[in-house]
Structure to design on (218 residues):
């Protein structure tokens, strides 16, 4: 059910009521933008557009968190992308996936699961090592985009301050995170494999160990 309104205004959007018969209502603004009102009263900005001969719908936010002015700005930005041959829905999805699959997000997810079998002290140290020595450089990167050279450059920052045991321990931690990312379908590879020899050695029995699948068979 659509109410054909040439252009919305703040008063119309604010005062719009849900349909008494339990149907969705569309308040059309223009250039594909409309306000979808659910029977429960929720108000959702949507934009219809065509891309590659497909009819598509883009979610632009929820009213009142996103007002009419902001919704129009988001629509105009999406239309510009379409004009440049970019599908705004695909771009939005890619950004969402990238945020969810950053190294830090996956590392925290792994730590939450793995640390249940550890003492509180050990689990806290593992997370502290990651937060201090890894997240500032690798944390925001999509895990699937991290290449083998990225990890040694991070570990060498630890080496430079003379913390050799910590560097090896952190390498093992990163290997665990990548192994977990592979197991959960976030990345096809573990760039930590064979990195043990990329670090300067430490005295035997000095490294506090955790299970490290990257060293199997070595």
């Amino acid at each position: 059910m659509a109410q054909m309104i040439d252009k919305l205004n703040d008063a119309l959007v604010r005062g719009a009521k849900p349909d008494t018969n339990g149907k969705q209502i569309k308040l059309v603004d223009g250039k594909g933008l409309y306000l979808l009102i659910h029977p429960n009263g929720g108000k959702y900005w949507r934009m219809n557009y065509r891309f590659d001969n497909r009819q598509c719908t883009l979610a632009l936010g929820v009213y009142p968190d996103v007002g009419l002015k902001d919704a129009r700005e988001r629509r105009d930005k999406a239309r510009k992308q379409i004009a440049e041959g970019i599908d705004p829905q695909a771009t939005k999805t890619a950004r969402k996936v990238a945020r969810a699959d950053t190294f830090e997000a996956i590392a925290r997810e792994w730590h939450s699961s793995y640390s249940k079998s550890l003492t509180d002290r050990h689990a806290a140290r593992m997370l502290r090592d990651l937060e201090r020595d890894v997240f500032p450089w690798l944390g925001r990167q999509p895990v699937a985009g991290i290449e083998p050279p990225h990890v040694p450059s991070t570990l060498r920052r630890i080496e430079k301050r003379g913390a050799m045991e910590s560097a090896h321990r952190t390498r093992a931690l990163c290997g665990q995170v990548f192994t977990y990312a592979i197991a959960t379908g976030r990345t096809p590879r573990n760039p930590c494999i064979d990195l043990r020899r990329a670090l300067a050695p430490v005295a035997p029995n000095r490294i506090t160990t955790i299970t490290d699948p990257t060293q199997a068979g070595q």
